[in-house]
Amino acid sequence: MPPVPISPIKVGHIDDVQELRKTKPRTIPQRFVRDMTERPTLTTPLSPPHNHMPVIDFSKLSKGNKEELLTELFNLATACEEWGFFQVINHEIDLNLVESIENLSREFFMLPLEEKQKYPMAPGTVQGYGQAFVFSEDQKLDWCNMFALGIEPHYVRNPNLWPKRPERFSETVEVYSGEIRKLCYNLLTYIALGLGLKGDVFEKMFGVSVQAIRMNYYPPCSRPDLVLGLSPHSDGSALTVLQQAKGGPVGLQILKDDTWVPVQPIPNALVINIGDTIEVLTNGKYRSVEHRAVAHEEKDRLSIVTFFAPSYEVELGPMPEFVNEKQPCKYRRYNHGEYSKHYVTNKLQGKKTLDFAKIQTKNTN
Length: 365
Ligand SMILES: COC(=O)C(/C=C/C1=C(C)CCCC1(C)C)=C/O[C@H]1C=C(C)C(=O)O1
Ligand SMILES: O=C(O)CCC(=O)C(=O)O
Ligand SMILES: [Fe+2]
Fold this sequence. Notes:
It comes from Mucuna pruriens. GO terms for molecular function: L-ascorbic acid binding; metal ion binding; oxidoreductase activity. Belongs to the iron/ascorbate-dependent oxidoreductase family. Keywords: Iron, Metal-binding, Oxidoreductase, Vitamin C. 26% of the residues lie in helices and 19% in strands. It is of the alpha+beta class. The chain has one domain: Sandwich (Jelly Rolls). The strands form 3 sheets. An 8-stranded mixed beta sheet has the order 1-2-10-7-12-5-4-3. Strands 6-11-8-9 form a 4-stranded antiparallel beta sheet, with no helix packed on it. Strands 13-14 form a two-stranded antiparallel sheet. Strand 8 (252-256) and strand 9 form a beta hairpin. Helix 3 crosses helix 6 and helix 4 crosses helix 6. Bound molecules: the ligand COC(=O)C(/C=C/C1=C(C)CCCC1(C)C)=C/O[C@H]1C=C(C)C(=O)O1, 2-oxoglutaric acid and fe (ii) ion (FE2). Fe (ii) ion binds at residues 233, 235, 240, 291.
């Protein structure tokens, strides 16, 4: 029997937003214009406590005295439970390295289009330069250019996609990712301790963790009220580390108590968020909070994002410590490799991807 033909994904023409911006269009192409219900709120003056994402001082966890450690563990646990997001200061990553990755990422995005297109993100895939998560011709597009690479383990790498220019880009990604990896393992230890678990529980459970990096570049947009920089989504990782480049406008917004809360960047801090894996493991005690990015009328914005997740072989489900009569099991067990595949083959749509693992509760009414 002849093989069943696989129909290629038809995504239509995807405008490169940086090139589009150069033409300064008076009207935004329809594929970027969001339906009314999706359009962003750009200036929401918020009053405390909604306006202040928690700040965690990493040095109090790593080298504080016992009292400082306990207080910061408590702050971390509260941040994870109430926000799913926090900013880390004094993270012990060399600030020269932080600055280098930022400068080199910017230099990459400023290269001529033909140079960047030497590393194309093929439709339906997530590595290289382009727009990920586009699967149909009628899907709205984000006001964003992305460049993504698999980092660890090495089998997730596609060496053809590691840029030769700018010089030192690839080696800096390597060094930076090594440092962020250490930070992720450390944060997972403190998150475990804050949950009353053994410090090494996640490291042992995750095997050789999968790690990827994505640089997001958001050019200015003449009508930021009509477009989204990045569609609402939760991250398919265990933890995500987000570096917001210096001098950029506020762009990240998180959905808290049904309100989109803008995140004020703190110089040299890293934004950390709980991903879908930790939501499942804690049976929803810690949630992977929906977030999005908005564009700015005059300023561009760059973010450098690391996704840190369990090995593809790992089977996951709520840990027994978080399941009881009051908190019945909300997620089924699944293989993380399958979840990963599911995540990267679906468009970003709020928290919908996690339906993959949700146990549907019967409506008894
Ligand atoms: C554009 O890419 C992503 O947004 C993304 C992809 C990450 C990945 C790579 C670039 C190559 C290696 C595999 C992996 C899927 C991790 C987001 O990552 C999230 C989604 C999942 C699932 C995850 O673990 O992190
Ligand atoms: O650019 C941002 O602030 C958000 C990035 C993000 O959420 C992501 O890449 O998953
Ligand atoms: Fe995200």
